[in-house]
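# step 3/5: fold
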Amino acid sequence: MTDGRIVRGEVVRGRVGGSSPWEDEFGYSRAVAAGDHVHVAGSTAWVDGRIEHEGDPYRQTLAAFGVGLTALAAYGLTADDVVRTRMYITHVRDAEEVGRAHSELFDAVRPVATMVVVEGLIDSRMMVEVEIDAYRSGLAKTLEGKQQ
């Protein structure tokens, strides 16, 4: 999980892959640590090779954040370390259900958050895509110690 490359002045301490077929096809990682920050790529309800909870924005949101939080766990981080979330939804009517799911996961943490309505996602059955940014002071040193 560690490659030690320098990107924009920060040492990239590791990349985490997920199960999305698009990661290899489009050349991206599920999550990347840079310094004390971890950035999680857009995550959807794509789990175990299929889209979960078709037609249910609330449950798709929980599943999508579950994918992202699993990636954070590879760095020893949890929802308590989340500082920013972004939610992309395909219809404004889903905002309350998506927001309810977000609140259940992050109400105690209260990260900054953005919700945007988009025309569509890569698969028309996907109703929501989320991104997560997390921070933990000293994370880089912790990850550096795991390299040895």
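# step 4/5: annotate
The chain is about 30% helix and 30% strand.
# step 5/5: archive (pending)
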